[in-house]
Design a protein that fits this description.
Helix content is 58%, strand content 7%. A four-stranded mixed sheet has the order 2-1-3-4, with helices on one face. Helix 1 packs parallel to helix 3, helix 1 runs antiparallel to helix 6 and helix 4 runs parallel beside helix 6.
Length: 215
């Protein structure tokens, strides 16, 4: 049986898993969790994931949540090689650093801003949020200086996590192509991947949702 992914495609972390699965050629069963109906708080879902977050993966009884953990697991179990998540300790440590950069800074700001707009009626970013995003975009631009991908010449799961969340942030606070030219070029490069379409549908849903909230 194909692994089950509990998801909503407007979620950046979910889209990073979809990108990873597509790059690996894995078919996942998609189980939509309607957050507006609090389906993530049902007894059955809480038994799977007591943190009640998406994405959550159920691979024939092996249950994993947090997109970074899911993506690493998928590569280790289903990858034909370790290119997307190297086994070499030094290379893997660099990928891990970028993943922590995503979870600790990029996604942290995305979640903070999105929740303020969705649940508190905010229509604009605060000065602190702008400062945080400028800082994040700046670091990412430095990582990409002279590199096509965030850890060097080869795409990894760190790119999938970051591209899904940065394209969402770009809706809320657009990446300045002059100041962050490396980030902008990386986004364009990612959009040319043969499996990038799995990011597009969910990103379009995110755009519709938040453009309405910001208007």
């Amino acid at each position: 049986m194909a692994p089950i992914l509990y998801m909503q495609n407007f979620s950046g972390p979910v889209r990073s898993v979809l990108l990873t699965a597509a790059a690996l050629g894995i078919k996942l069963q998609h189980k939509i969790i309607d957050l507006s109906k609090q389906e993530h708080l049902t007894d059955s879902f809480l038994k799977l994931n007591p943190q009640h977050t998406i994405p959550t993966l159920d691979d024939n009884g092996t249950v994993i949540w947090d997109s970074h953990a899911i993506n690493a697991y998928l590569v280790d179990k289903y990858g034909k090689d370790d290119e997307l998540y190297p086994k070499d300790l030094a290379k893997r440590a660099l990928v891990d650093q970028r993943l922590h950069f995503d979870s600790g800074l990029i996604f942290s700001w995305l979640r903070n801003i999105a929740r303020g707009m969705k649940y508190k009626g905010r229509k604009t970013l605060t000065e602190d949020q702008i400062e945080g995003l400028e800082n994040g975009y700046g670091h990412l631009d430095t990582f990409l200086k002279g590199n096509p991908w965030v850890t060097g010449n080869t795409i990894t799961i760190a790119d999938f996590s970051l591209i899904a969340n940065v394209t969402s942030l770009d809706v809320l606070y657009p990446v300045d192509p002059t100041r962050f030219s490396n980030v902008k070029a990386w986004m364009t490069r990612a959009s040319s991947l043969p499996y990038y379409d799995v990011n597009v549908e969910g990103l379009d849903s995110f755009k519709r949702m938040f453009k309405a909230l910001m208007s």
